[in-house]
Amino acid sequence: MTTLFLILIAFVILTCIGLNNVSSRIGVPTLLAFLLLGLVFSNNAISPISFHNQVFAKEACTVALIFIMFYGGFGTRWESARPVIRESVLLASVGVILTAGLVGVFCHYVLHWGWIESFLLGSVISSTDAASVFSILRAKKLGLKNNTAPMLEVESGSNDPCAYMLTAIMLSLMNGSASAGHIAWIIVAQILFGLACGFGIAKLATMALDRIRFQGSGFDSLFIFAVAIASYAIPDLIGGNGYLSTYIVGIILGNHEFKNKKNLVHFFDGITGLMQVLIFFLLGFLATPSMLPKSILPALDIFLFLTLIARPASVVAILTPFRKYPFRQQMLISFVGLRGAASIVFAIVASAGIESLQHDFFNIVFCLVLISISVQGSLIPTVAKCLKMIDTKNDVMKTFNDYNENSEMQFGRIDISADSTWNGRAIREIDIPKSALIVMIVRGKERILPRGHTVLMEGDQVITIMKHFEDNYTHLVEKTVKPDSRRVGHKLSEFAGNGLIVMIQRGEESIIPNGDTILYAGDRLILFDMTRTGENVRNG
Fold it and tell me: Given this model, what pLDDT does residue 314 score?
């Protein structure tokens, strides 16, 4: 059974990778593929196991959502988010409450549900999904006008705590355990303990990152991994909002400078992707196709009301008073509010926590999320274009913490020797490409800011800055010169090849080679390998 299960996991992962490439080309969120794949595996006897345990699913999805929330903060670039932080926080709190309330009223008066159950569903689907939104924006490279992308990033990354708090309150009311005082305490405890734990844990973690030297690669990742878990578990243990704490810790750590941070952003991006796959695949596993026809109509009704009325009304009510967001921008922000992972988790929480639900929350949310990420998600680029909100000069990647404004530029050093053509010449007399710039001259212990009349001298180190080069076809590789190699004792100019040796490491020495450089046994050659480019390569 174990071997069969491992084969199943490998097959699912490989299938998901293939579906990811297809979905990226057609503009549909990848998570839709995982959801459908889980549905197929669970209900067509492909899987060797039967999985319909909602209690276990609740616990697994809760853990997955911890990392999704943490990365929502950790990957957010504060510099981009700061100009729209007030609006984003209002959308993530007041906007969620308004959306949940409007959906609850709709379910009661139009679908004729009970009041508490109506507001419970509104709470479950009141938050938006950051991963679904930005999988589209990134894939299509949709730069948006007027700080729209940062606002969407912060709002969708931080609105889950409010939706969770509303869901917890509604569940308490349905269980009959909530008095007015109890509800007030839930709200105060959730917010107060969530904020306190979030800022406290973040402060301790940043102090540790500044002082601890991790012995060995990967231990910094494990440390942040443990911090993410603790940031949820500690406040949740004392009645606080663990998701709020997790998001706060994520955004503080993500914007704190420490070694290897950029690689950690990529690491947690991968972890978050895995958690998203788990939740959506699990949703497909739990869904029952025979129950979907009964759920599709109410799900469609709720989706249409949510997308066309509830969400736009909430966004307009919050952003209009600021007087700097045109109506077309408000409509785009409204439309981009996709439902996703959090709605799934909260639906499972509701289904597992209340046995007396009159309606099939789980399958209704399944259908609603399916419609949202397939239909609504696919139309985002078209809607953005129709609303004239696309900014081709704006890079959507600036919203994320792994963006580096200087990533396209790099420094270089040129040593001026006695026989150099630059020796004894003024900078204005040198033919320097327009894409490069001399920014400093190092002459002994002196640092010289260059001017056109500055004359270069033997021994000078000329510091340049130029555009960085990187593509998918050119690779740096390392080769060691063996003792029996025919190159030992010979000059580089005596041998030709498709590669270009850019550096030789000889013990502790790093050598920039030329044609007269002689190779020795044990030399490590760093070279551009152009034999795998798949394109035309010729020697100059």
Answer: 96
Question: Can you give the pLDDT at residue 221?
Answer: 83
Q: What is the CATH number of domain 2-43+54-399?
A: 1.20.1530.20
Residues in contact with 132: Cβ distance below 8 Å, sequence separation at least 6, in sequence order: 29, 31, 338, 340, 372, 373, 377
Question: Which of 18-22, 66-70, 387-391 is predicted least confidently?
Answer: 18-22
276 neighbors 226 (Cβ within 8 angstroms): no
Question: Three-class SS of residue 431?
Answer: coil
Please provide the DSSP assignment of 86-152 as one string.
HHHHHHHHHHHHHHHHHHHHHHHHTS---HHHHHHHHHHT-S--HHHHHHHHHHHT--BSTTHHHHH
Strands 475-480 and 524-529: antiparallel
Q: What is the dihedral of CA 294, 298, 300, 304, to 10 degrees?
A: 180
CA–CA gap between residue 97 and residue 100 (Å, rounded): 5
CA proximity to 328, closest of 85, 155, 145: 145
Query: Helix count (H) and strand count (E) of the chain?
Result: 19, 8
Question: In sequence order, what are the residues at sequence separation of 6 or more whose Cβ sits closer than 8 angstroms to the Cβ of residue 524?
Answer: 478, 479, 480, 481, 504, 505, 506
Judged by DSSP in three states, 323 sits in: coil
- pLDDT, one tens digit per residue, over 158-167 is 898 999 999 9
The mean pLDDT of 84-105, rounded to a whole number, is: 94
CA-CA distances (angstroms) from residue 438 to 284, 432, 515? Answer: 58, 9, 26
Residue-level pLDDT at 495 = 74
- Is residue 469 scored above 90 in pLDDT? no
Mean pLDDT of 511-539: 70
Region 406-470: CATH code: 3.30.70.1450
Q: Which fold has domain 473-540?
A: Alpha-Beta Plaits (3.30.70)
Two domains, one topology: 2-43+54-399 and 473-540: no
Establish how many alpha carbons lie within 13 A of residue 206's alpha carbon, considering only the half-sphere containing its beta carbon. Answer: 17
Amino acid at 223: F
Q: How far apart are CA 404 and CA 382, in angstroms?
A: 29
pTM of the model: 0.70
Q: 36-40: long-range contacts at Cβ-Cβ below 8 A with a sequence spacing of 24 or more?
A: 36/284, 37/12, 37/281, 37/284, 38/280, 38/281, 38/282, 38/283, 38/284, 38/285, 38/287, 39/284, 39/285, 39/287, 39/289, 40/284
CA angle, 69 then 245 then 32, to 5°:
15
Q: Encoding tokens for residue 496?
A: 């030709």
Of 23-32, 48-57, 219-228, 386-395, the one with minimum mean pLDDT is: 23-32
Strands 436-443 and 446-448: antiparallel
* Burial class (CB within 10 angstroms; exposed 0-12, middle 13-18, buried 19+) of 266: exposed
**Closest by alpha carbon to 430, among 418, 442, 421?**
421
Mean pLDDT, the chain, whole residue set: 81
Domain definitions of the chain by residue range: 2-43+54-399, 406-470, 473-540
Please list, in sequence order, all residues whose beta carbon lies within 8 angstroms of the beta carbon of residue 33, skipping any fewer than 6 positions away: 16, 19, 20, 22, 23
